[in-house]
Fold:
Amino acid sequence: MQKFTQLSGIVAPMDRPNVDTDAIIPKQYLKSIKRSGFGPTAFDDWRYLEPGEPGMDHSQRKPNPDFILNQPPYDRASILLARENFGCGSSREHAVWALDDFGFRVVIAPSFADIFFNNSFKSGMLPIILDTAVIDQLFKEVKAEPGYQLTVDLDAETITKANGEVIEFKVDEFRKYCLLNGLDDIGLTLKHADAIRAYEERRKQQAPWLF
Amino acid sequence: MAARTLYDKLWDAHVVRTEDDGTALIYIDRHLIHEVTSPQAFEGLRMAQRHPWRTDSLLAVPDHNVPTTDRKAGITDPVAKLQVETLAQNCKDYAITEFTMGDIRQGIVHVIGPEQGATLPGMTVVCGDSHTSTHGAFGALAHGIGTSEVEHVMATQCLIQKKMKNMLISVDGQTPAGVTAKDIVLAIIGEIGTAGGTGYAIEFAGEAIAALSMEGRMTVCNMAIEGGARAGMVAVDQTTIDYVKGRPYAPSGETWEQAVANWNDLKSDQDAHFDSIIRLDAASIKPQVTWGTSPEMEVAVDACVPDPDAEADEVKASGMRKALAYMDLTAGMPITDIKVDKVFIGSCTNSRIEDMRAAAEVAKGRKVAANIKLAMVVPGSGLVKQQAESEGLDQIFKDAGFEWREPGCSMCLAMNADRLEAGERCASTSNRNFEGRQGQGGRTHLVSPAMAAAAAIAGHFVNVNEL
Ligand code: SF4
Structure:
């Protein structure tokens, strides 16, 4: 997994609640058996004027000029500012892969859907939860100043604005540790293989029908 | 021991170890896989030269991409075909049981697990699919996971989890005639909102839930995720045990007795603590229809499309306006004035035998309205299809003008050829009305099987009781 330590980047505002993973990466692209290449079709239905299918040359398609991520400088954004319940719906991790492939490394929202939130950490993407009032203020500032940047520091758990103002956020210890070090959590879990086997032995006695 | 909720009990029974910050390793008993979210997990395993920890906990089935028309020709879409073949190859390589397309047991992953008894009370069940919450109907802890977690569970038999909070949703009293499990759960989501259950494991309880069949309980738990909760569950009772008995993967003989004794404890203790309690009066629930692009945007069939101007919360109101524009509806219009182009009866929410029966009862002796371009019924599994045919339900549907298809996810998410064209409006028994869910530009209204059949007959939404 890629590490996440610090990032300074352009913030793109996505001002609608309940952005679902079907919108982030539509189903036709889920037929891929790869983890990469989802960037050009992230937000496909909103991003292009005509329908998309796998295998197309997406650079030749007509972009929707009204869609925020098609408007410079947001096409180079690495921080996505969103509204509540971001990433709801389908469990498809392809949604995180698509955001990542597009260039996002951080999503800031007042709340996330649980599965999306969890998936993010597995691909080195940092989801940050902030109070609605703080988010409202950020939307105001971002919209007022295209090219608005933030600096995110995971170790310090801080977001710093260009004017020096600091916003604090919280991340679970374990998740932070894995993200900072780019650790593959399968390897970490397998260190406890003996504990897993011991559990299985116990469980076989109590509930033999499960084995 | 302190009084515990059902979720507490399931959690406690599966903790392998806990870190200082509360992060725990949870043991997984059953891991269901399908073609869409597993290929990258298998690739990850291979690259790291790892092997599945317990192949006998895995059960695989292709469902999202399979055609629902004649299968003799196989899958024509080469990309979908490769994905289904990749699943088959992976299952072969790792000796994992798979119900392939030609197998009568093939079907939607959340239909076949319970049908086979592969989902049992007290289990932890995961699948790379958010509607895994369905299996919680059996007093199991079941939730959807992402592909990295699919790989993690395959490699370690465990999942890294933090304990969720407990929510009780009690539906008290009896539902009126024509009100089904689907209407109950839509009403619940309307009440708590699509993010209302975020961070919680929901236990559904109360007289109206206890009165539901297993099929109905699965419908309710299926949509827990649409209320934001990864896991929904219902306590074990005699209905649960009667359903499980005799299924191929269920225990038998002496082990059966032992299992049942154990399962009878799978309910919340009397004084167990819930972090949140919601109560609904079953008698006040009416047949439901969604009008927007989020499952929480629902009303009773006799109501009107709501007005964003009456919504105080600006973010919400703007979401409503976007939804109305996408759905091409105007605030204030009666739901029963909404005309439908297509009807889809199926999906892991409503494709079980009981759903087929409920829709057939409405369709019986009637005809699909002239303005309906397509009304399709897609059973959840080969076995559901077989059962329905043995009861003559397929004939009832065909006589009425419905198409009777092969099992799969079909137009629930339109990964195969079954889809809405831009601008088409669908009465659907599935679980998501997101923009483009059933085809780009398609408009989805979520309803129960009986209400979908009624819409097919009337050509517009109608209260099934008044058809
Ligand atoms: S029927 Fe629909 S919701 Fe259910 S598993 Fe298939 S695609 Fe997902």
